Amino acid sequence: MRPAPMTSNAAIFLSGRLVTLVLLMAVQVVIVRALDPSQYALYALAFGIFALLQVGVSFGIPKVIAQVLPRAGWDIRNRAAARLVPALIALRVLASAVALLAGSMVAAALGWIALPPLALGAAACLFILVTIVQIDLDAMAQALRLQRTSRNALVVEALVRLVLLFLLYGVGRLTLAIEIMAISSFTLSGSSIMLFLAIRRRLREADQRDDIAPLDRQPLRSMAWSAYMSSAAWFTTSPPVMRLMGGYFLAIHPFAAFSFAQALVLSIQRFTPASLLLPFVEPAIVRDYNRSGELSRLEHGLSLLIKIDMLVIGAGVIVTSCCGTLLVDWVTAGKYGDYAFVFPFLLLYIGTNSVYRSFEVAAIAVGIRSQLSALLATSLAALGLALALIPHFGLIVLLLCPIFDAACRLLLVDRLLHRLGVRKVVDLPMVGALVAIIAGISAFGFEMSAMVTGAPILLGMTLAAMIAYLACALALRPLRWRELAAFGWSADHRMARLIRPLARP
């Protein structure tokens, strides 16, 4: 059976995400300009706790959403899926609230933090919980093919939040972290209500089949547990954990700079090719593997995602290496330009994260589940090493530790996959060549940027570096036609024609 190409739903999804990206980046710029470092550190801490809870108490729910809800009305009755939606949301909110309260009390008892004033604490809790709910509801809408509703909800929310923050900043009334969190909670709540109502309407529709068996919850628990253990390994040295460590060990100014860089890069990460396309690619290639038992589409589809992601993230690494200080000085009004060197490291980390996510999809598809829990030991060892080194070396430990841990986990998962015959998720010759090109141009650009001054010269040098990068990519042609075929793209497909110069037989 020929694999189906991406549909117009994907175009709706991508267009909405790209618009939202621009709006959320503008939101970050307004926030970093409005708040002084101490207030921005409070906002960054709340955002870091949200990111920590998003993974730490996920219980594999995101994987259940992505794997189960698309089957509503066909393999699972809409009525059963409708009952599952509020149950998953309630579990997430309850677990997050309990973890938030217990963690705060324990940290205060140990003297790690001082409990915030009631108003600030309530605003932070509301902001964290509403953000978690909104992300889960959006994932549910995507799983149910409500791409248009999702696009409208996300774009309108980001636009309203930006307008409100900009107006308050313009009149000088935006100076506190609590104001940022209150406005964000308000707009996110409206977006969540819009998504929930659309999901409820969708699941009230009639089933497409009459012979649907009752929902078996045991496979859901097994899937959730394996996904949760894999996420726990990633989470141990993840950006939110590194941010919390930075809040404890770093001074206010470097912590605020590190937090700003993390917030901006993590916002970008949600819109990298792998993050955008994986929700569409994963169900298709896993379903195809389960039906046919052939590994080719699974391997080639994930390999293509990894390469496209590397091409895009590599461009970001080169730009920030060449003129990062100039750009950060402009965005932050001169506050954090001295810390622009953190951006290439953070971008490199999110590149390794997309590879790990692709490996995770392949591992769960071919039945590697219980073995994923062994990865947690590696990550815990890396975290212990970071805790020992950060008092002596500071910020550089927070940048290098996640990359080192990710590399170790990728090597371990790669060995597990090789034992089951999965060997082409990473096209090693092409990926190695891409890494060498990116590293070489970035290193040269970084050295040159230290020797020249003036915005026109730096921008011209950055443009020259990007032209060299594009020329190298065109000469290398890292993509392969069999990888494009994994998406159901023939040689005449418009997406295939778009990236034809980068592909080879």
TrEMBL record:
This chain belongs to the protein called: Polysaccharide biosynthesis protein
Concerning InterPro entries, the annotation shows: Poly_Biosynth_Transport
- Give the transmembrane ranges: 12-34, 40-61, 81-103, 109-133, 154-171, 177-199, 248-268, 304-327, 339-359, 425-445, 457-476
Could you tell me where this protein is found in the cell?
A: Cell membrane
Asked whether the UniProt record includes Membrane among its keywords, one would answer yes
Q: Which domain of life is it from?
A: Bacteria
Q: Which organism is it from?
A: Sphingobium amiense
Main location class:
membrane
One GO cellular component from the entry?
Answer: plasma membrane
Upper classification of the source organism reads: Bacteria, Pseudomonadati, Pseudomonadota, Alphaproteobacteria, Sphingomonadales
PANTHER family membership: O-ANTIGEN TRANSPORTER-RELATED, PST FAMILY PREDICTED COLANIC ACID TRANSPORTER
What keywords does the record list, in alphabetical order? Answer: Cell membrane, Membrane, Transmembrane, Transmembrane helix
The topology of this chain with respect to the membrane is:
Multi-pass membrane protein
